[in-house]
Amino acid sequence: MLKASEGEVRLNGNIISTLTEKKLSYIRLREIGFIMQSSNLVPYLHVLDQLLVVKRMSGAINKEDQQFATKLLEELGLGQKLRKFPEELSGGEKQRTAIARALMNDPNLILADEPTASLDTKRAHEVVSLMTQEVKSRQKAAIMVTHDERMLAYCDKVYRMNDGTLPLAASS
User: What residue ranges carry the coiled-coil annotation (predicted)?
Assistant: First the structure.
């Protein structure tokens, strides 16, 4: 997993601060799933294709990839939306698609940057609850950055950054 000590940051044993750009790109693709503030979906791709594009970056898409993508979307309540475009989805559906896309390459680490920023309170709780459930059931690590203190209840550990400084001790 992710480990930091004396200026070194390691991910699965790799000191990532010393890797070439090509190796860093490979690690970002294979080891890290990203969920952003806005879903950042490709407007001209159907929901299913949003996930398959991640596999396409890794190489060819096979039948198992398509089945896994479909299963992920079904688990996230999007089974009826596979052929829909982003403009046809609600904000919560877009974020659930982004969660599925982040999980597509079976990464060890999920990084979520303000994943509830564009959602109302109900959808925000649904999305973070779902994200938490998926991370735990798949035994992944996740780091969520948020200003929304209501979402802290879903976190195992909370670190508070003040004026750009991150204290070493967890606050909960």
Answer: none
pTM of the full structure: 0.83
Quick check: is 22 in a domain?
Answer: no
d(CA 151, CA 126): 10
Asked if residue 22 has pLDDT above 70, the reply is yes
Reduced to 3 states (helix: H, G, I; strand: E, B; else coil), residue 39 is: coil
Residue 41 falls within a domain, yes or no? yes
Structural domain of residue 116, as residue ranges?
35-154
- The total domain count for the chain is 1
Q: Which residue has tokens 């398509």?
A: 66
| Residue 10 CA to its chain's centroid (Å) | 19
Does 88 score more than 90 pLDDT?
Answer: yes
> Which pLDDT does position 113 carry in this prediction?
93
Q: What is the DSSP string of 102-158?
A: HHTT--SEEEEESTTTTS-HHHHHHHHHHHHHHHHHTT-EEEEE-S-GGGGGG-S--
**Domain presence at residue 12:** no
